[in-house]
Design brief:
Elements lengths: L1 H7 L5 H11 L2 H10 L10 H5 L6 H19 L1 H17 L8 H11 L6 E8 L6 E8 L3 E7 L2 H16 L2
Antiparallel strand pairs: 1-2, 2-3
Helix pairs in contact: 3-5, 5-6, 7-8
Length: 171
């Protein structure tokens, strides 16, 4: 992915390329791709994992996608794997006109540019089994505004909360 982005956007500085790659290889994106490829019906999971909804977990499906790419590399080599990755990620690369700004960074910048305190993130709930956790995170900018969101990891929930708060602040 890094090689491809460097080829596709040769004049972009490292920071923008980093934002691009981070947006393209998240667990959520890998999980979306696994779903699009029809991986879910082929998963072999124990009863407890199935009962807990692991077949729809972004964590599980993201890990499966990474494992599939690794297995493909071991079986078919670099060139075939490169071709596979570029084929399944092509739409996402082509629609990414600008390097996306991570929602947490964007919220931090919003707060600074409006002379506000930095955002504070708090985990308000953690539920679910170990292989399919669910986190609820609240983000607040002082007493000005707050938003909550859920995710399958603390990081994912923080990102979703930051995105929700940004939408609220930009109205």
């Amino acid at each position: 992915m890094a090689e491809w982005l460097f080829e596709r956007f040769p004049d972009e500085p490292e920071g923008k390329l980093s934002r691009r790659i981070n947006a393209l290889v998240t667990g959520a994106v890998c999980a979306e791709l696994a779903r699009e490829l029809g991986v879910v019906p082929h998963l072999r999971l124990g009863k407890q994992a199935r009962d807990d909804g692991a077949t729809q977990s972004d964590n599980v499906l993201g890990d499966v996608m990474e494992a599939l790419i690794g297995a493909f590399y071991l079986e078919a080599g670099l060139e075939a794997t490169r071709s596979f990755v570029r084929r399944i990620w092509a739409d996402r690369i082509e629609t990414q006109v600008r390097a996306p700004k991570h929602p947490k960074s964007a919220l931090q910048e919003w707060a600074a540019s409006h002379d506000r305190r930095p955002p504070e993130y708090t985990v308000v709930d953690r539920s679910g089994p170990g292989h399919a956790p669910r986190f609820t995170v609240k983000v607040a900018i002082g007493k000005l505004a707050e938003a909550s969101a859920q995710g399958t990891s603390k990081q994912e929930a923080e990102t979703a909360a930051a995105k929700a708060l940004l939408r609220q602040l930009e109205r």
